Amino acid sequence: MVSKLLDKLPLRTVLIVPFVLQIVGAVGLVGYLSFRNGQKAVNNLASQLMSEVSLRVEQNLQVYLTTPHQINQTKLDAVNIGLLKMENLSAWEKYLWRQVQLYPYINFTSVGNNKGDYRAGEQLSNGSRMINVIETSTGLNFNSYSTNERGDRTTVTTIAKNYDNRQHPAYQKAVKVGKPTWSSVFVSLLEPTLIISAIQPVYSEKNQLQGVLFTALRLDHLGRFLNSLKVGKSGQTFIIDRQGTLLATSTTENPFRTKGNQRQLFKVEESSNPFTRSTAKYLTAQYQKLDLIKKSELLSFEINHKRQFLKVLPFQDGKGLDWLIVVVVPEADFTKEIDANTRTAVLLCFAALGVAVAIGILTSRWVTNPILRLNAAAKNIAKGEWDTTVESERSDELGELAKSFNSMAQQLQQSFETLENRVQERTAELAVAKDKAEVANQAKSTFLANMSHELRSPLNAILGFSQLMTRSQTLSPEHQENISIINSSGEHLLTLINNVLDLSKIESGRTTLNPKKFDLYRLLNDLEDMFEFKAHDKQLQLVFDRNTDVPQYVEADEIKLRQILINLLNNSLKFTQDGGVAVRVSKQSLGRNQQVEKGKFAHQELSLNTETSAFNDLKISQFSHSNNQIITAPNDDSASTSSFFLYFEVEDTGPGIATNELDALFEPFVQTKTGKDSQEGTGLGLPISRKFVELMGGEMSVCSAVGKGTNFKFDIQVTAVDAADIETPQPTRNVIALEPHQPTYRILIVDDKGLNRQLLIKLLNPLGFELKEATNGQEAIEIWDSWEPHLIWMDMRMPVMDGYEATQYIKSTIKGQATAIIALTASVWEEERAVILSAGCNAFMRKPFREADIFDALHKHIGVRYIYEDPGQTNLLPIKEGDRAMTATDLVKLPDSLVADLKLAILNADMDLIDTLIEQIRLKDAVTAGAIANCIENFEYDKVLKLISQAISHE
Q: Tell me, what DSSP letter sits at residue 258?
């Protein structure tokens, strides 16, 4: 209605009326706003002033209070590097004497050891410096010496009998706290100042107390700094502790009282300054206890009906100090000039009112006529009449506007002509940017390949040697546990590296599916066994619920499915403290878009037990699911009967995830608040899991309620298979010897890293392989040509000549065709496998490898056969009945005297007699003799003695 009315009014009226109304309204509000703005200005100015002053005080305190601890640290560094000894304090005297003169606000710096000896360099306010000494040899007497300009002792000025520095409260506090801290504030006996000491205990390499370092700080310098600050005309600044004790003030008042011959600290409420005393009383009445002030507070109060501004700022240095910085300023310091300015502004506003109204009327008439002409010209230009011009003789803004209209048509015409050229240029720039992005992506791939090699190579040695040590039967249980920790930590680090590389492969599109026929029930049972102990340790319930229609044998990427479930279960168990975790698996024969009805899943009941809730009656409803669809082959009866979706849910009763964190939950390296608080994880598990689910034809979603729990849901597309198609997993067996009657195999190990070569040597040498090693491809070719090994373990990245070139050279010869070459590489890219095999390698093995993989490769490529630790298992190829591992039964078959002599020889470490007895046993049982010899060669005496004891008891 108002818009239609305004449309009918002339432009002149529209300009004049609002202009006059605005001026009248502005002038009418000036009085009120001037008063309010004055009040706000006072508040803001006071707040800014007090914030600036308190900040300067805080910054000065930080510097001022850091120095004593830095001085103590320099002394501690001198002790740690051996320049000064805690046992001999005589060498400290000149060091402390020179150190104290560098800092005018340091009263003394000293050291005391655990024997009672003490040395200090002290500086008085008159500039004189002293050396203070306590020695056990003099009966722990305190002697204070004057010094000359070189720091040498001159005369004794003070003597105190039986002064044991170890009984001093500061010394005992340092010992009790066990780290750098502060002593209590005290009044100096010699100087009119308060003092606080930075104290730090000194421990030996065996964590035994050697003594304590002291650096005393004068607080009167802090008072001088406060006095130098300008806080309005009559404002004050003072510092108190949490008990209300005055420590420093900007006034001339001393922060201590003298009663008789005693100097004592006092409460700020007892201050002789009325302003300080009134401020302190207000703080006490406001907070009851000063400990309740946890953050910066801006307050106001009245003294004699006059308003005062008050700023309180807590100060902690992280080493035990907990003070309050107080800044107080009277409002009267600000309002005098502001009130005068406000009155002047009001008068000027009323005067401007009359002038503005008159000028507004004249100006509107002067403006409207040119605007009407410009409006007509603008309409012509909008119609495309580029030759339209506006005539104007004015040189003001309206004249400039007319000139702009005249040039507009020409500029627009030129713009249309150049638009196409700019589009082409932008296209070219995008092409260049694309090329740069591809180069950057290639650089990232190169970096990850290098990172993989540099990280996996040492991990190969860590995991490999830890596996070797676990096979030793001579290690104590404690060492066995330590080796287990090393191995599990290495596996954890390998998992983190694989997560980063998996994410990189996902982002670059290099991740592919590797479908495998497997037993789904076995996979779920394995996961339940894997996490059962962790759940039991945290007193949580772990429930695996599988619908009866879920098939046992399916075809999918088992490794990726296992990793998805492990990631989700790890997260759930890590963050859940009460209740439990449930894993549910069901079958979906239709697409996911056909399973959703009214935005909800058919699975509405979320309690883990149908009769009684397993998780403290937890119920979470209205969990939504993604509506994205999976496209399946239509009208395919065979596909509909064998291909289907498996629907998984992993639900916990943990702390839940906030709604504002759900959107970023699947972003790489992003963690929820709970994850950050735990200081665990990398933020890669969920992004990788979701990508794997999408790669397997499904989708992952999450629904959570804070304080109740979280439910991760995903589905994957699988195919049902027959039980006959499943490969039965072979049990892991430890190799203890080579099967008899085999040739002596020559193995060449090529790697530029000594640890990697040593690992393979320690793994293969005890079994009787003939081994040689080379550090690069050139050496490998020379050894191969002269030695003709049966098999070469070839690292692919080496200096001088890499494994690719060496392999190509060897395989290019007729003699080289008979040599098996197995590549060892830390690369994780699948493309690398094709490159390595095309170079001529017979097989491809990634670092870090397992010892079982090494033995399997030797069997596969050169036919090596083994004897295993478990006598009930056979080697990779069928062996004869007599070729088996040694047991107590084998020793029972031997003559008693022969077994007794063997036991005595082992106990006496008589190697000549042991060799003789083994040869006698070989005449009766060659396999048993070989097994005994192998144990003796590998220092497994305990194993042989244990079997002998079992054989004797068996008899």
A: E
What's the predicted TM-score (pTM) here? 0.38
Q: What is the rounded distance in angstroms from the CA atom of residue 159 to the CA atom of residue 212? A: 22
- Quick one: tokens of 292? 């309740």
Does pLDDT of 357 surpass 80? no
Q: Report the SS3 class of residue 162.
A: coil
Residue 80: burial class (beta carbons within 10 Å; 0-12, 13-18, 19+) = exposed
Q: With beta carbons less than 8 A apart as the criterion, state whether 650 and 581 touch.
A: yes
Phi, psi of 890 (to 5 degrees): -65, -35
Q: Within 13 A of 119's CA, how many CA atoms are on the CB side?
A: 19
Residue 276 token pair: 């300080």
CA–CA–CA angle 641, 645, 648 (5° rounding): 145
Cα 448 to its chain centre, rounded Å, is: 20
The DSSP-derived string for 52-103 is HHHHHHHHHHHHHHHHHHHHHHHHHHHHHTTSS-SS--GGGHHHHHHHHTT-
For the chain, give the mean pLDDT.
78
For the stretch 60-117, pLDDT in tens is 888 888 899 999 999 999 899 988 898 888 889 889 998 888 888 888 999 999 888 9
Show the tokens assigned to 821. Answer: 């070459």
Query: Which residues, including other chains, have CB under 8 Å from residue 850's CB and lie 6 or more apart?
Result: 467
Q: Is the pLDDT of residue 1 over 50?
A: yes
Is residue 807's pLDDT more than 70? yes
> CA 58 to CA 53: how far, in whole Å?
9
Tokens describing residue 90: 């005589």
Q: What is the pLDDT of residue 650?
A: 93
CB 180 within 8 A of CB 27: no
Q: How far is the CA of 905 from the CAs of 273, 322, 889, 946, in angstroms?
A: 96, 73, 21, 14
Q: Which helix (H) or strand (E) covers residue 372, if one does?
A: helix 332-382
Residue 585: partners with Cβ closer than 8 Å, 6 or more residues away: 520, 524, 544, 545, 546, 547, 550, 646, 647, 648
The residue type found at 516 is K
Instruction: Kindly state the tokens that stand for 5.
Output: 């009315």
Q: Is the pLDDT reported for residue 406 higher than 90?
A: no
* Residues 789, 747 contacting (CB under 8 angstroms): yes
The token duo for 949 is: 């004891």
- Classified as helix, coil or strand, 429 is helix
Give residue for tokens 């959703």.
596
* Segment (H or E) for 107: strand 106-113
Question: Alpha-carbon distance 539 to 581, whole Å?
Answer: 11
The predicted pLDDT at position 955 comes to 55
In this prediction, residue 643 carries a pLDDT of: 82
618 and 605 Cβ atoms separated by less than 8 Å:
no
Burial class of residue 153, CB neighbours in 10 A (0-12, 13-18, 19+): middle
E-strand ranges in 547-672 read 553-556, 580-588, 643-652
Joined tokens for residue 258:
């003298």
Side-chain half-sphere exposure of 90, counting CA atoms within 13 A? 4
Chain centre distance of CA 951: 56
Decide if pLDDT at 572 tops 80.
Answer: yes
Both tokens of residue 756?
């990697």
* Residue 760: strand pairing partners: none
Residue 863 and residue 187: Cα distance in Å, rounded? Answer: 88
Closest listed residue to residue 265, CA positions, set 226, 309, 219, 310: 219
pLDDT at 68: 92
CA distances, 238 to each of 158, 193, 644 (Å): 35, 15, 76
**Mean pLDDT computed over 464-486:** 68
Do 157 and 189 meet the contact criterion of CB atoms below 8 Å apart? no
672 confidence band (pLDDT: 50, 70, 90): low
Please state, in angstroms and rounded to a whole number, the distance separating the CA atoms of residues 893 and 891: 5
CA distance 130 to 122: 5
